[in-house]
Amino acid sequence: MMGFEYLDKNVVYVDSACQSLRPQPVIDAINEYYKKHNSCGERVKYDWGIITDEKVEATRGKVLKYVKKSPRHYFVSFTLNTTYGLNLILSQIDIKKAGIKTIVTSDIEHNSPFLSTISCAKKNHLKREVITRNEDGSINPDDIPERALVVVNCASNIDGRLLINIKGIIKKVHKTGGYIVIDAAQAMAHSSEILYDVEPDAICFSAHKMYAPSLGGIIIRHDFAKLIDTNFIGGGMVDDVDKETFLLSKDNKEHSYTQFEAGLQAWGEIIGLGASIDWLNSLSKKDHQMLEKNTKELFELLSSKEKLHLINKVPATTMSFYVDKKEMGYDSHVLGAALADSGIMARTGYFCVHYYLDHVKHYPPLIRFSLGYHNRPEDIKKIAEALKNF
Fold this sequence. Notes:
CATH architecture of the largest domain: 3-Layer(aba) Sandwich
Shape: globular
Number of domains: 2
Strand order of the largest sheet: 2-8-7-6-5-3-4
Strand content: 15-25%
Helix content: 25-40%
CATH topology of the largest domain: Aspartate Aminotransferase, domain 2
Largest sheet: 7 strands, mixed
Order of helices and strands: EHHEHHEHEEHEEEHEEHHEEHHEEHEH
Number of strands: 15
CATH superfamily of the largest domain: Type I PLP-dependent aspartate aminotransferase-like (Major domain)
CATH class of the largest domain: Alpha Beta
Structural class: alpha/beta
Number of helices: 13
Low-confidence stretches: none
């Protein structure tokens, strides 16, 4: 629980898949920005601005190092969130220049890739395919058509299942002349290693799911970025502007990141992300073991309850289940409210995965428990007590 000493002992927060709690070093980094060098980055020459620039640039490097990507091949741009990043890419990609014939996503996707691929397909008159993910999270390589733009997650926000054959899928996509964009929102905090030895064309993520402030990011290949027809434009993206023309800063490789950063950026939040990466890297073996132990015990608890229908096949920090209204007389929303009355904060509903959970599986509303490094063994005991009658 390093960094969460401020947390009330009665608080049981199990909604980290939505947004994680912030450890003290991240809070301190943000406060330091606002108290000691509150300034605009890339626009000023005074000392505060120079400090901000140095810390923001350092964060870009930390992001690349965190997922083991070389700045020779990738750069980092900051956005609002994963949804925003995916839409920036899919709404501006030059489909003809890229030679894309089909856009592909999967059935277990969050609405972020699901809706943005619908929009991209309609805009560009593309065929769109929704492929079925296997229960272990893998994708059948034969389901990937030629010259496809593939947009899929590498970790599910339903049950944490991983795209375990991500390396083979990326190779298949590239071999057949396609491109692949990875939604890594649920992977960055607890499963970032899945991104280490692979080379997708872009990775979109949300900092607020990795113990950082509310922020998003795009990790994108330099060569893939050249296929983006930049038309979402604003201050901070240009080197010069004439009456009818402008010169984009992205044309200078050192400033490639400006391609997706229109207007004033969230400097304090970016610095907070840098602090969260430092904090994640500082976690001990004991911290990781505690999260693993809590995950295993919660999975065993939920699996043992006959009246709770667990979606997960294996333990994961994210676990979803539902109650049968015909059997219980109430649905998961009511149970979620009862848990809240007991001080347990969990998510209810379809978690922005409406297509798969509602229209494919026909599940009733669900409850999701998602753990983080702030959770204590006592939290699992309190959940067990609240669910003792199931």
